[in-house]
Amino acid sequence: MPLPDPNIVHPMPDQKRCGYLKALVTRPTIEIGDFTYYDDPLGPERFEEQCVLYHFDFVGDRLVIGKFCAIAADTCFIMNGANHDMRGFSTYPFGILGEDWRAAWDDGSVEAGFRGDTIVGNDVWFGTEAMVMPGVTIGDGAIVAARAVVSRDVPPYAIVAGNPARVVRARFDEETVSRLLAVAWWHWPIDKIMRNVDAISGADIERLEGAR
Questions:
Q1: Whole-angstrom Cα distance, residue 26 to residue 16?
Q2: What predicted TM-score, i.e. pTM, was given to this entire model?
Q3: Catalytic one among 10, 55, 84, 187?
Q4: Is 10 an annotated catalytic residue?
Q5: All structural domains of the chain with their residue ranges
Q6: The architecture CATH gives domain 18-86+115-171
Q7: Is the pLDDT reported for residue 91 higher than 90?
């Protein structure tokens, strides 16, 4: 049996709305892990343009998304280029608006709005129209509810919802979460993952830990 290929565009040939992002992303400042997909009725090819906003090269921030993430339509990652300098009386970005305003350019203005890279772990599920703000880290196994606005870090295996997004509950108890993070099945070779899909999809941590 052939092994799944994370570098193909459409894992389900009859469903062109779903695509592995690793095969589609072109920007060097976006890193996508194996088998992470984006599902959109207008096509996954629009991910960079429609879902990663204000991502300017001169800012230099990165969007890093791990393996086996499921990203629903119109999920949006707001990058640091959206931030305005709030140190003065006006937040208007004079310095970036063409030659007439170039004298107002201030490198410190960019630095003042920088919140760092946006990091998403592995096996994270984003509901429709979820929004992630700049510099947020979302832990492995988390679930981001539809239309949630994530403005702060999300712990591993937490479910967050609302605006601003808050932890609704943990998916599992602390001991189980620690064991899941130690197993880190998403880093297994793909043939081992295929042999143990039932254990990965199940809820028996001892069976998962004993996978071969």
A1: 19
A2: 0.94
A3: 84
A4: no
A5: 18-86+115-171, 173-212
A6: 3 Solenoid (2.160)
A7: no
